[in-house]
Amino acid sequence: MQNQMYGKRDIYSSRRRNQQRAKLEKKLKKVIDGSINCSLYMDSVRITGQVDTWQKVVKAGQIAAKTNFKEVINDIFFKENSQNIQFNERLASTARYENWDIAIIGGGIIGCAIARELSKYDLKICIIEKEYDVAIHASSRNDGMIHPGIASPLGSLKSKMNIRGNALYEKVSKELEVPINWCGSSILFKTTSSKLIWPFFWIKAKLIGLKGLEYMPKKSVYQREPHLSEGVKWGVLCKRAGVTSPYKMTVAYAENAIENGVTLKLNAKVIGMKNINKDATLINKGEISEIYVQDQTEKYTIKPKIVINAAGVYSDLVAEMAGDRFFSIHPRKGEVVLFDKKKADLVNGILGFMGDRSSKHTKGGGIIKTYEGNILVGPNALETFERDNYETNRATIDEMLRLKLPQIKGLDMKDDITFFTGIRASTYKEDFIIEASRQLKNMIHVAGIQSPGFASAPAIAERVEKICDKMYLELTSQKMVQDVNFNPNRKAIPNFKEMSLEERNKMIALRPEYGEIICRCEEISKGEILDALHTPIKVDTIDGVKRRVRAGMGRCQGGFCMPLVMEIIHSELGVSMDQITKKSGESKIAAHFTKDRGENK
Amino acid sequence: MNYYDSIVIGGGPAGLAAAYQLKIEGAKVLILEREARLGGILKQCIHDGFGLIEFNKVLTGPEYADYFVNAVKSTKIDIMTKTFVTDLIKTEKGFHVTIVNSQTGVQILSCKTIILATGCRERTNKQLFITGDRPAGVYTAGTAQYMVNIEGLLPCNRCLILGSGDIGLIMARRLTLEGAKVIGVYEAKDTASGLARNVQQCLLDFEIPIYYRKTVIEVHGRERLKSVTVADVDEQMKVIYGTEKEVVCDGLILSVGLIPENEIAEKLSVAIDPKTNGPIVDGQMMTCIPGVFSCGNALKVFDLVDHVTANARIAAKSALKYIQKESETDG
Amino acid sequence: MDEPMNRMICIVCPKGCQMMVQRDAKSGSIKVTGNACEKGALYASEELLHPVRTLTTTLKTDNPIHPRISVKTSGAIPKEQLIPAMQFLNDFCVETPVEIGTVLVENLLGLNVDVIATMTLKEGE
User: Fold this and answer.
1) CA–CA dist B288, B267 (Å, integer)
2) Which listed residue, A125, A289, A477, B52, has the most CB atoms within 10 A of its CB?
């Protein structure tokens, strides 16, 4: 009976799907653990059971992903598992409710890019973000690389989105005033025999429509990257690769969206949803009528026409709330080390080493010169069951540096200025999911957006716009109407450091605060910090300022400028010095004023 | 274009002493200071113990600074505060110094000699590869000192101090006096790196323990620091795994070394000694670029400000000689 | 008979001499060795009988830009009075401008020392 629901889309008969399921179950029982069972959920496969390590949970999911099922729902338990998903909190409607045309869950690069694309239309749009700012998770915790698109598997959605996203960024960069350095990336090989695969690169590039691919003999490799250690035999140059600031890009998208009428709800967490048809099927579809939101002061209800799930590493949990969880996210951590700008000259672009990857699931886990000129090493790839534990680990960082540092002559561990972790929102199929829900009339899932997600963001937003257009018509029998007042251009905070002497003088004459340097390492002026405090998104934290103008991101890591930034926040916004936080919540910089409280009073 | 015999970059103890010396011996001098007030780090070093050699008196940091600030002001030396140097260029007859200031905008000044007196900065937890979370509550001792002494903020209620540098020891006492609990000082070596008297009057006086051959390897707490992991280290300062212990605290104060600040010197390709992180100088404090002198903590980290003052005078005198020699050759 | 030897680190100057200090029980005379100067000997006997310290700290001010002013005691005070002195000074708020050397608190806790400004604090500087 279930088979009827799939209609023509289902390429398997019920019997064949069952055979596949049984075969997979047998394999998992044998390879992973006897307790594992497989069942069918729509055209995905769901695996359950109990094992003793997270590695086994992931391994089982990866084996299941090799089958032809659409996605893998991995509900295998292990002892410390946070996978225990329960959203029985189907709340009754709250007293207060709001009507929205589009509710986007998640304020990362994807949610913000979608919001900005949809703000072209005369729609009431909100972004619901559980954190205190945009770009808190993966969007500020990556290398800012705009991949050329050569690395994604042929025919994958990733590949398509990456190629298109890369192309769109040129325009986006101009409109949003977030500069990109199209520095190019080199894929480097250490064996001569591997030259045989060059034609395959060439053919793949032709097939996916990637231009600017070049074969580099050894000599050209070392001409391009003279500080590279010996041993590289040849390389592939992808000219269509660039670097930019991922957090500045996300903030820019969000700001432009807000300027075009989008509402950004911060500190707002989705805690439940109401599906008007609890027994929704592919034929008899359901609909999300209410989203329950908890913010710092109250619980309230959002009544949306369309819901967009852009919740990153939490996207499967959001899908579960909607009663539409057909995939699982297995978070994959990546640690990154940043080096002093003094060493900027050691690397000229993006370097990837073939046959030298710390894991097969990293893209360009190599050495990059960031937009600002810091050499970045990483990321590595570590499977984890914790969705937002950003702790770094000395042993894994050491291992990564042990492998990568020798690739560049003159790059030393003591030149590091900081390191951090990002978490990739990977599905077991390791491809993007960008589609209208198949059993809910008004939901769009944008999930599994891992690398090259940042590079793909403009294309993903474009694709969602199309899905949304169709969905809106089906739901309301009306077309989305263009907003004549849409302004695609967003003004960036002037970047004093990048100005010529003449420009600097003009700026200081106009705004004297631009002549006062606050962050000495990054040369950030008081004017830039003041401007950051008055952008469309409320900024009153040290890290919020940092994400906008980079004050505190240099070699002293804010040792000198953090107190000065606090003084500016205090005098400009009237926040008491003892209440200023690093990143909202409990993260107060100081415990309290001296002489006011404490043990000796 | 404004022309100076010497431009002194930095208005801390080294810069003030050098500028004063240059001026009283007849040179045309300009002091460039990025902060609003002269005095450099001495402004926040409110403890005493300065000046015994220079003045045969026990002074606090602000008092020591006050003497030199007054001396400098009395000689009518040109001073620009809130002024940031963005570039140094070697010219035929000397140097061009590009500065930024909110009143005068960007200016290019010309001079015969440059005195680099830019001081030093502190090593951070990131440079020690202390891993874990990135919470509020982890500060270098100098940042904590600024917060307490200048802004009147107590950075934590209960803290651990990593490293036994002098600022760390001074801060142990200062935080205790202001009502915070200092659990202890953790030092990876087997002796304190600060002065013995500071161990006595800052730690022993207040019964603050100092632990040797121990370090902090991880910090915990997503928003505010909740605890740190400490561990023993061996003679090579390598962590001995299996000795980890978690210590509950809301503050980690680091006093793990000072690094001379020479980023601006590097614009002139001044050669840097990898051991001291300061410029390589001759006996007269001249760097490998003729006409560029280095002194104070920008040259190497000194224990005592009195020695910084003396060192700055040597640099100034040698700059004077250089200026005279150059004028003679110019005819 | 002599009382036990006391090991001491001199805090008078940065040298930090390691001294041995011993008091003769009968005569009460104090013998100091290891000191490099007379000041050290003086410090050692004081430290043995009644240890004193100069307190350096800050006081609150009425100036919003400079909420604290650095101060010191004009002389040393008994070590055990450091914390009570801090507690006592918590409530003081200094009216600015203040010149360096100005007495801000007279006769601190009746200890015959004053609290004096160690910096000049002027409006808007």
Assistant:
1) 13
2) A125
Spatial neighbors of C117 by CB under 8 A, at least 6 apart, are: C69, C70, C71, C94, C98, C99, C100, C101, C102, C104
Which option is the CATH number for B124-254: 3.50.50.60, 3.40.50.300, 3.30.70.330, 3.30.360.10? 3.50.50.60
A147 labelled catalytic: yes
**Residue entry with tokens 């060192």:** B311
Which residues, given as ranges, of chain B have pLDDT below 50? Answer: none
- Express each pLDDT in A209-230 by its tens digit: 999 999 999 999 999 999 999 9
pLDDT digits (tens, 9 = 90+) for A524-572: 999 999 999 999 999 999 999 999 999 999 999 999 999 999 999 999 9
Peptide bond into A406 cis (omega under 30): no
3-class secondary structure for A191-242? CCHHHHHHHHHHHHHHHHCCCCEEEEEHHHHHHHCCCECCCCCEEEEECCCE
> Could you list the residue range(s) of the whole structural domain that residue A395 is in?
180-238+333-419
Which domains does chain C possess?
6-49 (no CATH), 56-117 (3.10.530.10)
Cβ proximity of B68 and B42 under 8 Å? no
A208, A65: one domain? no
pLDDT band (50, 70, 90) for residue A597: low
Distance from CA of A601 to the nearest CA of C (A): 6
- From C90's Cα to the closest Cα of chain A, the distance in A is 5
Supply C40's token pair. Answer: 């050290």
Assess whether the previous peptide bond of B209 is cis (omega < 30° from 0): no
Give the CB-side neighbour count of residue B71, counting CA atoms within 13 A.
19
Q: Please, is B328 exposed, middle or buried when counting C-beta atoms within 10 Å of its C-beta (0-12, 13-18, 19+)?
A: exposed
- B302 contacts in C (CB within 8 Å)? none
- Measured between CA atoms, how close is C76 to chain A, in angstroms? 21
Residue B90: what are its φ and ψ, rounded to 5°?
-80, 130
Q: Dmax of chain C from CA atoms? A: 64
Angle CA(A166)–CA(A171)–CA(A173) in degrees, nearest 5?
A: 85
Catalytic residue among A137, A147, A330, A445: A147
The DSSP result for B71-85, as a single string, is: HHHHTT-EEE-SEEE
- Count Cβ atoms within 10 A of the Cβ of residue A95 and give its class: 0-12 exposed, 13-18 middle, 19 or more buried: exposed
For residues A342 and A394, membership in a common domain is answered with yes
Query: Collapsing DSSP states into helix, strand and coil, what is residue B190?
Result: coil
CA A310 and chain centroid, separation: 10
B290, B306 contact by CB (below 8 A)? no
Query: CB-hemisphere CA count at 13 Å for B257?
Result: 14
Which residues of B fall within a CB distance of 8 Å from A589?
A: 136, 147, 153, 155
Fold of B3-121+258-330: FAD/NAD(P)-binding domain (3.50.50)
Element (H, E) at A77: strand A72-77
Q: Which of A46, A77, A108 is the last residue of a domain?
A: A77
pTM of the model: 0.95
Residues of C in contact with A596 (CB under 8 A): 90
Give the pair of three-digit tokens for residue A238.
């992808």
Start and end residues for every CATH 3.50.50.60 domain found in chain B? 3-121+258-330, 124-254
Non-local CB neighbours of A120 within 8 Å, separated by 6+ positions = A260, A465, A482, A483, A486, A488
Question: Is A387 a domain residue?
Answer: yes
A500 shares its domain with A573: yes
